[in-house]
Structure formats: structure tokens, C-alpha cells
């Protein structure tokens, strides 16, 4: 599973915690990041690591294979490679579903309603499900 990155992790107390990540895209400011951390903690989720990196074109195409070859490909690639991103590794009960709910949909709910500029510049990404976590996390954890 994802180069040894398990979806479920046992914490020191013996409780099983699901893992996921929340990617903060290039337009996320430090103030937005602080708000995200506050909201994650408020939901009882734990950020265990923050990874900062500049994505390559190849990594963007692996993260968004459904967009490559489409009408928005150039804009997405330019946006996602324009600056460093932050990847917050998150743990908690039902973390994948809970982080997706917190992220929300562009213009409709959650963090994206509060911060997204538009469909492309939508500030946040997280895996859709466990399979997505396994497929995508290897882009950030080497």
C-alpha cells in the first residue's frame, strides 16, 4: 500500500486511526493554512506531518489524470506548478470522509466555499477514497 504508507495506523494507545492528506494548493496563504489547521483540530483530526514541495508536471498529471488532455490541462498544470504546495498528513476516525467534507465543494461548502477563487484555483485537494489515498500519497512521500 503506497510504498509502506498504511491507510490505517495504530496509535500508542492501541486505537486504529485512518490516514489521509489535505493538499494546500499554491494560492493558500499562511492565514488560510492556520484556519485549516484550526478546523482540522476542531474536528478531532490530527495533523501528523506537513510536507512542502514544488510539484512537477509529471506529478500533476498523476494527481489529475482525468484532466490531462482536457480543455483545462494547461491552466491546471500552470497553477499547480506555479509555487510550492503543502501536504498535511491527517489521522483520525474516518479521516478520509471527514477531510473531504471539511474541504467541501467549490462555491458550495467547506473550505472551498470560503477560499476557492474558481473551479481551477480551488485551494485544496484530498483523496476521494482509500484507493485514491494509496495512489496519490506516493507523490508526496518518498
N to C succession of SSEs: EEHEHHEHHEH
The secondary structure category is alpha+beta
According to CATH, the fold-level topology is: Alpha-Beta Plaits
Please tell me what the overall shape is: globular
Approximate strand percentage? 15-25%
Note the quaternary state here.
Answer: single chain
CATH architecture: 2-Layer Sandwich
Key features of this structure:
single chain; 142 residues; alpha+beta; Alpha-Beta Plaits; five-stranded antiparallel β-sheet; 36% helix; 21% strand; globular
Please tell me about this protein's structure.
By secondary structure, this protein is of the alpha+beta class. The protein has one domain (8-137): Alpha-Beta Plaits (2-Layer Sandwich), CATH 3.30.70.141. The protein has helices at 30-42, 57-63, 73-80, 95-103, 110-115, 130-137, and strands at 8-10, 16-24, 46-53, 85-92, 124-125. Strands 1, 2, 3, 4 and 5 form a five-stranded antiparallel beta sheet that branches.
Amino acid at each position: 500500500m503506497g510504498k509502506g504508507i498504511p491507510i490505517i495506523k495504530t496509535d500508542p494507545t492501541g486505537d486504529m486511526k485512518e490516514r489521509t492528506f489535505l493538499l494546500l494548493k499554491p494560492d493558500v496563504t499562511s492565514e488560510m493554512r492556520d484556519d485549516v489547521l484550526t478546523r482540522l483540530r476542531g474536528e478531532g483530526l490530527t495533523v501528523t506531518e506537513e510536507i512542502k514541495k514544488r510539484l512537477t508536471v509529471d506529478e500533476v498529471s498523476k494527481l489529475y489524470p482525468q484532466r490531462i488532455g482536457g480543455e483545462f490541462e494547461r491552466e491546471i498544470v500552470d497553477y499547480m506548478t506555479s509555487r510550492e504546495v503543502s501536504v498535511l498528513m491527517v489521522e483520525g476516525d474516518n479521516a478520509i470522509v471527514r477531510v473531504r467534507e471539511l474541504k467541501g465543494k467549490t462555491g458550495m461548502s467547506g473550505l472551498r466555499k470560503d477560499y476557492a477563487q474558481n473551479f481551477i484555483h480551488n485551494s485544496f485537494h484530498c483523496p476521494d477514497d482509500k484507493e485514491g489515498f494509496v495512489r496519490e500519497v506516493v507523490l508526496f512521500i518518498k
